[in-house]
Amino acid sequence: MDFALTQEQRMVYEYGDRISQRYDHAYWKRYAEKSEPPAELYKQITDDGFLGIMVPEAYGGAGQGMTEMLLFMEGLANNGIPLLNLVVGPTMTMGLLAKHASEDLKRRLLPGGCAGEIRFCFAITEPNAGSNSMEITSIAKPDGKGGFRLTGQKVFITDANHADYAMVVTRTTPRAEVKKKTDGFTIFMVDMKKKGISKTLIPVAFPVPETQWQVFFDDVPLTEADVLGEVGKGFGILFDTLNPERIILSGLCTGVGRFALKKAVAYANDRKLFNNTPIGAYQGVQHPLAIARSEIEMASLMALKAAWAFDSGLPAGEFSNIAKYAGAEAGIHAVDAAIQTHGGNGFTKEYGIYDLYGLVRLLRTAPLNREMVLNYIAEHVMGLPRSY
Asked: Are 66 and 307 in contact (CB under 8 A)?
């Protein structure tokens, strides 16, 4: 078993180290506090060819896989540059398009996506269908002319205001009319400029560059050409994006945790109390940081295993869910340990630690909460009875 990264993978992973020389955590935080996308950073990432990591070269991408996307995201987060937009765009939407879209849809959307000319959001969550996607009530009804009319509401849609297209998970057959609850789902690529689409901002309580939106679809016209995969069979495709979502968010959390620990170690070596001794010499400071580091590295390895399984065409649900759980918990513990190490300074803007806590804490709850992740592991991995 070889744990060594290839030279190309190492370069992808270390990209965050290089780009942070120009666009560091302080830069990220300025945009996070304004809830605005860091345009210069996104342009540099685009120019360097990283938006299309998971897209074949024939459509303007790099032709790499989930492993490289994970390394890229984790490398950025290692330097205090966590970018949620890269989860919903390059990972979830473009990765799924590359794998399941028609040739026409690929040609229409992927080259522009790789070039940063077309931006995406991912729309699945609804007010009454968060953790349980079976309860989705938005519906695209056949219009009798070979097309569809989409009506419904989606919530917590990241950067919907900047998206040119939304990947929308909806029903084309109501749940009451299908034999299996997973039947009747269809995924559409929806042009966000179409008539009948409106958006409302959902203010969040912590700083991130990305914004969250409610999106309303009121009799929006769609065609067969907008369908990803087959009509009524979208649920099977869905898991090809949910596993990458869990993997990539695990990497984001472990990266943020490493960044926080790096700052904590520097502070603990520099801060002196009681006989002019660095506080890092005290086990009360050392042990929480050492535990957090151990958790970070274990979670990081599980995310890599999940990415390897996904790229190898193997079942990745078990590893992806464990990685999501472990990454979120490790990230929270690492940031918390770093705050505690800084004492009162950990709560100041100057030291830049507490501003990361809201993000890692969010990722315990969303996009799939810890309890649902543990349900999956208990029932689908361990064979325990279903609880719901």
From this structure: yes
Between these two residues, 120 and 131, which has the higher pLDDT value? Answer: 120
Which pairing describes strands 212-223 and 185-191: parallel, antiparallel, or unpaired? unpaired
User: What CATH number is given for 121-232 in this structure?
Assistant: 2.40.110.10
* pLDDT value at residue 14: 97
State the virtual CA torsion across 180, 153, 206, 360 in degrees, nearest 10: 10
CATH 1.20.140.10 fits domain 236-381: yes
Handedness of CA 55, 61, 62, 68 (dihedral sign): negative
Q: Establish whether domains 121-232 and 236-381 are of one fold.
A: no
* Residue 371: partners with Cβ closer than 8 Å, 6 or more residues away: none
Residue 379 gets which letter from DSSP? I
CATH 2.20.28.160 fits 7-119, yes or no: no
Write out pLDDT tens, residues 156-200.
999 999 999 999 999 999 999 999 999 999 999 999 999 999 999
**pLDDT score for 132:** 83
Taking the C-alpha atoms of residue 379 and residue 161, their distance in angstroms, rounded to an integer, is: 38
Domain boundaries, the chain: 7-119, 121-232, 236-381
How many Cα atoms sit within 13 Å of 356 on the Cβ side? 36
Strand partners, 170: 186
